[in-house]
Fold this sequence. Notes:
By secondary structure, this protein is of the alpha/beta class. It has a single domain (2-187), classed as Rossmann fold (3-Layer(aba) Sandwich). It has helices spanning 13-23, 53-61, 80-88, 99-109, 123-133, 138-152, 167-182; strands at residues 2-6, 27-29, 32-34, 48-50, 65-71, 74-79, 92-96, 113-119, 160-163. The strands form two sheets. The protein has a five-stranded parallel β-sheet with strand order 2-7-1-8-9, with helices on both faces. A four-stranded mixed β-sheet has the order 4-3-6-5. A hairpin with a 2-residue loop joins β5 and β6 (74-79). The model has no long low-confidence stretch (mean pLDDT 92).
Amino acid sequence: xxxxxxxxxxxxxxxxxxxxxxxxxxxxxxxxxxxxxxxxxxxxxxxxxxxxxxxxxxxxxxxxxxxxxxxxxxxxxxxxxxxxxxxxxxxxxxxxxxxxxxxxxxxxxxxxxxxxxxxxxxxxxxxxxxxxxxxxxxxxxxxxxxxxxxxxxxxxxxxxxxxxxxxxxxxxxxxxxxxxxxxxxxxxxxxxxxxxx
Length: 197
């Protein structure tokens, strides 16, 4: 299966994904490709694969992306070859995507995908988290806040909701979802025991 996690900026999804990857060794982070410049502390190939607009154009033209979208004045995409390599080696890809990319992946992968939408506990908390980042000017901050309302309108397209009110509690809910999903009949090639034997 593939795991998709989306939510508005400031919901804490990246922090949750990092904690989830540390807690579940069979999961592997799907590194998105972006035209956004790196933020302080980010490393190429770890948080994102940072490329020029020209390189992104080349990859898009070659249909290298499962999905890609414009988000906050930059482009982000999920590389098809990376997902295929993870699945072939028995790893479970974790995709941290915006709602545009998320909806595209939901439509493509159907039951193979576990889709989870992460919410902040409240609007004031979301605003506080965005301000604490201090990575953008006031205009960009306002744009992210407006976009958050639009992003949340896509939540009904996702199978699961997780409110990130407390990191450990939210992480526990994420892990519970994955345990339940791994037990679903459709995840098995055959029943563990055949009837009558």
